[in-house]
């Protein structure tokens, strides 16, 4: 972070996103210069050592009248500045008192749900008609998540961005699962015997345990 560049990171459960903004000209407004701000901050932090880092940042903004054009405090920019100075050894921030729960990191795994796993041995034609049920944001979405978690060899991972989830029905039973993300340019279909599944770069599918399609040689794309 400098007077001409700002960067931040965010964790989405699968990896880190890095966002960086570098000014093509000029500098960020209200950026402290010289050595005096660091000395002032050290005294300010010592006088307010009872405050948390978040409250300390807001108080610094108020003391410096460090605000956005809409009048809101430049709290996040100030937090970044204080953390940079802390890491550089210029100031000593209070110990971290609270770490907010990250739902992407601490997400609870889907609980197992009961399904009928009585073996079915039949030709593909005998499984018709097939009904495709979209379950995203419905009462059956937890069932989809559970089946993917406990019957897919990769388990369930929360997709990033907009996505759809489908339950595939046949003869009154759920036979398979399929999901696709909004960024899918092409969606590949895959099928195999037993509880094997097919996975492509943009979609994930699964065949319910207990299904034994007869005369099915492999997948098709």
Quickly describe the structure.
The chain is of the alpha+beta class and 221 residues long.
Question: Keywords for this structure?
Answer:
alpha+beta, two-stranded antiparallel ribbon, 221 residues, elongated, 2 domains, four-stranded antiparallel sheet
Walk me through the structure:
- Helices cover 22% and strands 22% of the residues.
- It is α+β, with helices and mostly antiparallel strands.
- The chain has two domains: 5-87, no CATH class; 120-214, no CATH class.
- It has a four-stranded antiparallel sheet with strand order 4-5-6-7, covered by helices on one side. A two-stranded antiparallel sheet has the order 1-2. A two-stranded parallel sheet has the order 3-8.
- A hairpin with a 4-residue loop joins strand 1 and strand 2 (16-22).
- Helix 2 crosses helix 3 (75-87).
Helices, strands, pairings?
Blueprint (H helix, E strand, L loop, with lengths): L4 E7 L4 E7 L13 H12 L5 H12 L10 H13 L32 E4 L6 E5 L6 H11 L11 E8 L2 E9 L21 E5 L3 E4 L7
Parallel strand pairs: 3-8
Antiparallel strand pairs: 1-2, 4-5, 5-6, 6-7
Helix pairs in contact: 2-3
Percentage of residues assigned to helices: 10-25%
Instruction: Name the structural class.
Output: alpha+beta
Strand order of the largest sheet: 4-5-6-7
Largest sheet: 4 strands, antiparallel
Computed CA radius of gyration, to the nearest angstrom? 27 Å
Order of helices and strands: EEHHHEEHEEEE
Oligomer: single chain
Uncertain regions: pLDDT < 50 for 5+ in a row? Answer: 184-202, 213-221
Beta strand %: 15-25%
